[in-house]
Amino acid sequence: KLSCVLGILLFLLVGAVITPAYGESPIIITPFQWYTGITDAGASKSASFTVQNGGSVPLIIRNIHLRTTSSCFSITPSMPLPATLAPSGQMNVEITFTAGAEGLQRASIEVDYTEITP
Fold first, then answer.
1. Burial of 16 (0-12, 13-18, 19+ CB in 10 A)
2. What's the pLDDT score for residue 35?
3. Are residues 82 and 60 in contact, defined by beta-carbon separation less than 8 angstroms?
4. Given the DSSP bridges, would you call strands 4-10 and 104-105 parallel, antiparallel or unpaired?
5. CA angle 31-34-37, nearest 5°?
6. Cross-strand pairs, 40
7. Global pTM?
8. Are 82 and 62 in contact (CB under 8 A)?
9. Cβ–Cβ < 8 Å for 27, 111
10. Residues 87-104 pLDDT 10s
């Protein structure tokens, strides 16, 4: 019997500090979502995502992690954290999905950051 796993990665942004004037996070993640499709048990798929500072002040990125109840996902930032991102600055993260259990698997990226105010 062929065992397959369906994985999906959806992104929700949650920051430690929210820009008070607009109530929006300055963090921009692209692409917004990733659908792995049906994946054979034990097989892996990876994708690269960009985390960008869309605000007007530098940000200290303290942590980037996945919020999920599944152990099928892992995340690897391209630089050691904490890291400072200038306005329009960006860094990459690699997300890997390794099919383990049958069914739909979900995760969201969570970015903990602090704004550096002058």
1. middle
2. 83
3. yes
4. parallel
5. 155
6. 4
7. 0.75
8. yes
9. yes
10. 999 999 999 998 887 788
d(CA 64, CA 85): 13
The count of residues in the chain is 118
- How far apart CA 66 and CA 93 sit, in angstroms, is 11
Within 10 angstroms of residue 45's Cβ, the number of other Cβ atoms is 15
Instruction: For residue 29, give Cα distances in angstroms to 14, 33, 74, 90, 111.
Output: 12, 9, 17, 9, 10
- Residues 9-60 have pLDDT tens digits of 444 333 333 333 445 789 999 888 888 888 888 888 999 999 999 999 999 9
What type of residue sits at position 59?
Answer: L
Q: Are 25 and 53 in contact (CB under 8 A)?
A: no
CA distance 59 to 52: 10
